[in-house]
Amino acid sequence: MELIDWLILSSTLAFIVLYGVYKTRGKQSSEQYIKGGDARWWTVGLSVMATQASAITFLSTPGQAYTDGLEFVQFYFGLPIAIIIICVTFIPIYHKLKVYTAYEFLEKRFDLKTRSLAAILFLIQRGLAAGITIYAPAIILSAVLDWELKYLNIIIGVLVIIYTVSGGTKAVNVTQKQQMIVIMAGMITAFVLIVTQLPDNVTFDNALTMAGSADKMQILDFDFSLEDRYNVWSAIFGATFLMLSYFGTDQSQVQRYLSGKSVSQMRIGLLFNGLLKVPMQFFILMVGVMVFVFYQFNNTPLNFNPAAEKAVLESQYAAEYQELQEQHYSILAEKQAMQRDYAKKLNGQFIAPEDKLERRLAFFRINEEQNREAARQLIQKADDGIETNDKDFVFIHFILHHLPKGLIGLLLAVILSAAMSSTASELNALSSTTAVDIYKRFKHSPDKDDDHYVRMSKWFTLMWGIIAIGFASVVSLFDNLIQLVNIIGSLFYGTILGIFLVAFYFKKVKGRAIFIAACISEAVVIICYCVDEFVPGVSTLPFLWLNPLGALLTVGLSWLIETGNKSSPNKEVSYNRGL
Q1: Is residue 23 a contact partner of residue 170, using CB atoms and an 8 Å limit?
Q2: Cα separation, 514 vs 114, whole angstroms
Q3: Closest CA to 35 of 251, 263, 269
Q4: Pairwise CA distance, residues 115 & 107, whole Å
Q5: What are the DSSP calls for 135-169, one per residue?
Q6: Among positive and negative, which fits the CA dihedral 530, 535, 541, 543?
Q7: How far is CA 36 from CA 100, 256, 273, in A?
Q8: Are 185 and 409 in contact (CB under 8 A)?
Q9: What are phi and psi of 139, to 5 degrees?
Q10: Is the pLDDT of residue 571 over 60?
Q11: What does the DSSP 8-state code read for residue 69?
């Protein structure tokens, strides 16, 4: 980090915070503070996209592609399907009821306890996720500055809290447009620089061929397997349910398009996100694939996590690790020589027996991975509290070691802007849900004016910001940060989606039946995950399949409970009331 990098990074972050405060200065009503006013479709679309594109997207996704290739893009195939369903069903009802939160609708359709249950499930999962979105960029600055993670978590969280508390939903919306500009400009710049830094005889086509020979270019996997987290079937079924839950029932997203000026503006904004999200995600994965190709011609550390390497080199296993490092660089030297020959072959300048180079390259890649695995085991022995999985550090390493002056600051600004945008949306949604669905609903008093609820919303924003910072300070890396976010969502989203599906499509099911069904299905989902994750030798369902399980179980059980209790004395709540 040079002076120019610090200037670019600090000025970008300062501009976003001050701009958000400036654009939302002055007194706001509770409706303006929580709903954000009448936003146009482009503001809605960019806000929705920026909310989903957290720092984890730009931190973990390239590392995911570096390790596993492009197959992760299948995860987003269910997004367009979910967006169309939401535009047709969810948005018109939300708009007609003029709700502040998605969960208000559930009381109109069912009862207070069902509304409260859905709101509490949302608060739990989104509160945890908010901590992760703060923690992810803190890793980056920790690697850059060698600062304590807990101090960085506090700094990042406070920056977001400042303008989110000040301006509410409108502040989140107006800053996210600038953040998306910074994000896309930075990622495009990174992609161009990676390609231009490849050897002179390696064209972009050659780079794609090399990536393909290493199985990094496979996108579609039609083999059905519950053990495989990412294939077409888990995307179409599992991910569609997850996306329906996220965009249709998660207040951090619902609040973005509830700020739309009209139903058409909401729909166009959401469709805009649906059309661009898959190409954007594919592009970010391609950045990771190009980083992989780049590192076929350049040295990499034995483990990309600098804290892990430092821990093992200061332990009794230092000599063994250094021996593995020597083997690692020897393997890299031979692999790089063969990669140069492979590049010549692709350009017709090198004649080799059929597939000989490809087979030898595959052999050395296997050796390299075996060496890395041995290093991970040593790191685990040295300090079992250090995360040995280094996927999330791959892109950071490239940024810090191979980008020119000035662009390091820009790429760090990209990742921090993404963190601020998604965290701001989450805190804003957590505050709104707490204020509207919990505080106002249970503590409503005629003598409380509108200003009181605005003040309480600000206090709730601050409260959730502190909680998120606290969780960020204790969370550790999982297999991959982007997977951790999706796992947390999958534990709760299916049940929440099931409640909404019943509300929209099963008019005869009443509050008591859906409440019992939701409680049972949530317990089943959590048990399935815990058994699969923590009981050796027992496999249930991968996390993506927990979404359809929770949703379908909630729908099915509520229907069975309702039909089995037709004589229930509960007064039926009309589905059409207020619609």
Answers
A1: yes
A2: 7
A3: 251
A4: 5
A5: HHHHHHHHHHH---HHHHHHHHHHHHHHHHHHHHH
A6: positive
A7: 10, 8, 19
A8: no
A9: -60, -40
A10: no
A11: G
Distance CA 18, CA 9 (A): 14
pTM of the predicted structure, to 2 decimals? 0.77
What are 127-179's pLDDT values in tens digits?
888 888 788 777 767 766 677 777 888 888 888 787 777 666 666 666 766 77
Q: Name the β-bridge partners of 260.
A: 39
Burial class (CB within 10 angstroms; exposed 0-12, middle 13-18, buried 19+) of 449: exposed
Alpha carbon distance 463, 467 (integer Å): 6
Which two tokens mark 16? 């976003």
Any alpha helices (H) in 383-439, and if so which ranges? 394-402, 407-433
Find tokens 């499930």 and name the residue.
121
Q: How confident is the model at residue 446 (pLDDT cuts 50, 70, 90)?
A: low
DSSP secondary structure letters along 267-295: HHHHHHHHHHHHHHHHHHHHHHHHHHHHT
Q: What torsion, rounded to 10 degrees, do the Cα atoms 147, 304, 208, 277 define? A: -40
CB 235 within 8 A of CB 70: no
C-alpha triplet 184, 189, 195: angle, nearest 5°: 130
Backbone angles phi, psi at 354, to 5 degrees: -55, 120
Measured in Å, how far apart are the chain's first and last C-alpha atoms? 57
β-bridge mates for residue 520, sequence order = none
Q: Are 159 and 417 in contact (CB under 8 A)?
A: no
**Tokens at 428, concatenated:** 């804003």
From CA 493, how far away is CA 511, in angstroms rounded? 19
- Structure-token pair, residue 350: 């090198």
Residue labelled with tokens 């890395």 = 372
Separation of alpha carbons 7 and 464, rounded Å: 30
Helices (H), 98-250: 104-109, 112-145, 149-196, 204-213, 232-233, 240-249
Cα–Cα distance measured from residue 352 to residue 272, given in angstroms and rounded to the nearest whole number:
49
From CA 345, how far away is CA 356, in angstroms rounded? 11
Q: What tokens appear for 158 in the block?
A: 């406070």
Find all residues with CB under 8 Å of 511, minimum gap 6, and list them: 110, 111, 113, 114, 570, 573
Mean pLDDT of 359-375: 87
How far apart are the C-alpha atoms of 47 and 266, rounded to whole Å? 11
Instruction: Judge whether 461 and 428 are in contact, CB under 8 Å.
Output: yes
